[in-house]
Amino acid sequence: MSLDAGTRLGPYEIIAPLGAGGMGEVYRAKDTRLGRDVAVKVLPQHLSANLDIRTRFEREAKTVSSLNHPNICTLFDVGREGDIDYLVMELIEGDTLATRLARGPLPSAEMLKIGIQIADALDRAHRAQVIHRDLKPGNIMLTRSGAKLMDFGLARAIGIAGGVSGETMAALTNTPTVAQALTAEGTLVGTFQYMAPEQLEGGEADNRSDIWALGCVLYEMATGRRAFDGRSQASLIAAILEREPPPISEAASGASSGSTTVSGGAPAGLARLVRNCLAKDPENRIQTAHDIRLQLEGIAEAAGLSSAGIVAPVSAISAAPEINARRAAPQRLWWLITTALVLAAGLAGALYPRPKSPEATIRFRMDPIPGTMDVYWPRVSPDGRFLMVVATDSTGKGQLFVRPMDQVAALPIPGTSDVRRAYWSPDSREIAFIRDAKIQRVAIGGGTPVIVCPAGGGADLSWGPGGLILMDGQPNDSLQVVPAGGGELRAATRIDRAAGEIGSAWPCFLPDGKHFLYIGTRGGPSGNIRLGQIGSLDSKLLGTSDGRVEYAPGGWLVFLRNKTLVAQKLDLSAGELTGQPITLTDDISVGSGQGHFSVSPSGVLAFLPENVAGAGVIAAFDRTGGMIGTPLLSGSVSNPEIAPDGTRLLYVRSTTSQGSGGEVHVFDLGRQTDTRLTFTGGTASSPKWSPDGRRFGFTTLSPAGSAQLRIGSADGLGAPDSIGLTGVGAPMLSQWAVNGSRLILWSRGTGNTFQCSPDNGVRDVRVLVDSTLSLVQSQISPDGRWLLGVRGGAGDWQIFVQSLTGPPGRWQISRSPGGYLPRWARGGREILYQGGDMQLMSVSIDTDGGFRAGTPRPLFRGLAPPFGPDAGTWTCDESGEQFFQFIPPRNDATNSIEVVSRFETLVTRK
């Protein structure tokens, strides 16, 4: 049964159908969280109950999610809504290659460009142990950004068990991109015209079956004709098994006579390449898609054609025999004019450069891995495309997992069980680790590890761009180095005994492949940061670290100060650190002193926050309760407060229980940067913005009971101004009111509300209103006429408004079950609060000629329970359109890695 427009599958809203087949129905849908259009593929309801088909559907999800390549359709999500299983994939705009070929063969440059992209995509899939098994023009989309390989519905991940019964096999082959399902029951999977002989004979398909199909596609792009055809299935199979296709030169010449898209046949070398792809015996074919890509690039270069699809310079064009003299002259003139225009445009760009739009910074947390107990040791690949972690099972045994950054699933790397730490190769295709006292390396797609050399008790490595691997050896050893291809370890450093060092640890190559960093261990938590160089045993002392050290792009060193992750500039030519360390995060998980963090040469930072399993997050929401983007902050965070201009968020990061104090931080929503503003020893609480957003106020309460109101600069400069608080008792700051620039406080001890106006010279605190009932969380209206607050006692807290000017009066705003955390919004025309049942409530307010409050109405359910009047679980902007909420941790939460896509934004102060 088809899905109607407006149907919701999780956060995805169906817009319109795109196609349907036996294996799936595809719809255009809207991702309501991120506001983007996606393609949603669902199992038809009459098949969803079939275990075999559901198994294949899940297999497709695992297959596609294991791939990450610009020329492979991206899998965003997978889910189940009721009895509907669905995949959420990249919505690709464009035509299929089959549609394009209906108009005739492709020009050589375009054909080579597409061939190179598809070969590279297949190479990526094959390295991940994935066979497509249905490669054809109908499964290749042509987009503005290039070709996209689609529909792995018939792919099979090598090593994933689970066959499909014969009676359902035919249905499985009919995907939305298959025009006609030509399959024999129970044996053949794919489309006949592009199936290799071994598949037709019922044999096992492997990478070379895809090579055959790619040869068929290249033939068809060059000639506009299928390599094999027949009037019936039998004649088609006979042609594939017994006959050779017509030579490309003949087929291309025939096609060119009736088409203006081909001139002079195919490029030299292409016919031989296709012939080697279409060898009947798999052993005689080209063996890898990587080799095909290299040969296609060579053909393009030899023909004077760019693999990017750009025609070669005019000298090459005019020399081509098919271009006559009458056409050559206008083309040379056109080329000269075009070149002049391009040079003029380049000169104008140099003289008047266009401002570059800043790239968005993405911050997210890696979801827990199903079936594992704990994750740690995040390692970002050098190209920034993958995140590798170690995950443990219930027995504590480790296994390496890798997750593409743009996908949701993390997959185990075969052959890496019982590995505790691992390190990337410079090209991001392999990893190295130490196991069984040997340095070993393996492709991220898995396989049999290759032994580099005996490890001699080492634990940690660094694989440099120069093809060398550094190893730290035994605790009392110096660093050692070995070629990544194998060989003998040799000394790379010497231990500086005069500096109190007893060993070496945590090597890290710099981008030049010659210099490296490491820690000179001293037998305690702190060690010396040292700079070494291949070919010399000497090193230079740079500073100290309480754990590891890594090099980050832009010349930064990233290391530890206790549990704080910091960055400091390295002057490599002088061999010294410059400037002051910049705090990146305060709650890094240390774990045996190493520090669970990683920063890639591409600028992606990943780290494991301390005790994140017992902490929550802060996220943004719209007025309907829908989350905007991904969570912004994680850890022991509370008291979010949005700046008046809506660009920054104050909050408290605590090292103890929620709401018990900590340090005030500011989070820049645009740059996605986090800056610590206070250093009070963990006693800061209840931060509030000044009306102009340039300052912030907060309170402190020492263990001895000494309380202070402090005012600091929002840019972090200068020491906070302190105002002593006597007789207040456990103060909390409620508001920095616009009217009169008053700071409103309340006492957890007495329940009274106080005010202080330091900008007006009134630095002492005074009771704002006399009352026999407590008034807490007080907020003065924007016009200064009304005071909003919470009154009552345990179990019966209600929201009230009290008059500050004119005739006295008091109005109850909330109804059962009470409320907390009231806020003025919309210039005083609305009051928002959280009810005792966790509902966020809205009340319209009319103050013309008096005070009138409307009926409370729910907006959405809050995510954190109302702990009481002390809680700081949510806030909103002045318009009442954007909310920031604390989300408590799940009961089943495990450690979760946090990722920041642009390290530079954490160290750049704009």
The strands making up the biggest β-sheet line up spatially as 1-2-3-4-6-5
* CATH topology-level fold name of the domain at 8-312: Transferase(Phosphotransferase), domain 1
Largest sheet: 6 strands, antiparallel
CATH class of the domain at 8-312: Mainly Alpha
Rounded mean pLDDT score: 78
Shape: globular
> How would you name the oligomeric state of the polypeptide chains in this document?
single chain
Percent strand: 35-45%
Number of DSSP strands? Answer: 60
- CATH architecture descriptor name of the domain at 8-312: Orthogonal Bundle
Which secondary-structure class do the elements indicate? alpha+beta
Helix content: 10-25%
Overall radius of gyration? 33 Å
CATH superfamily of the domain at 8-312: Transferase(Phosphotransferase) domain 1
What is the end-to-end distance?
54 Å
Characterization of the model:
- With 910 residues, the chain is an alpha+beta fold.
- The protein has 14 helices and 60 strands.
- It has a six-stranded antiparallel sheet with strand order 1-2-3-4-6-5, covered by helices on one side. Strands 53, 54, 55, 56 and 57 form a five-stranded antiparallel sheet that branches. A four-stranded antiparallel sheet has the order 12-60-34-33, with no helix packed on it.
- Strand 46 and strand 47 form a beta hairpin.
- The chain is globular and about 100 Å long.
- 46% of the residues are buried.
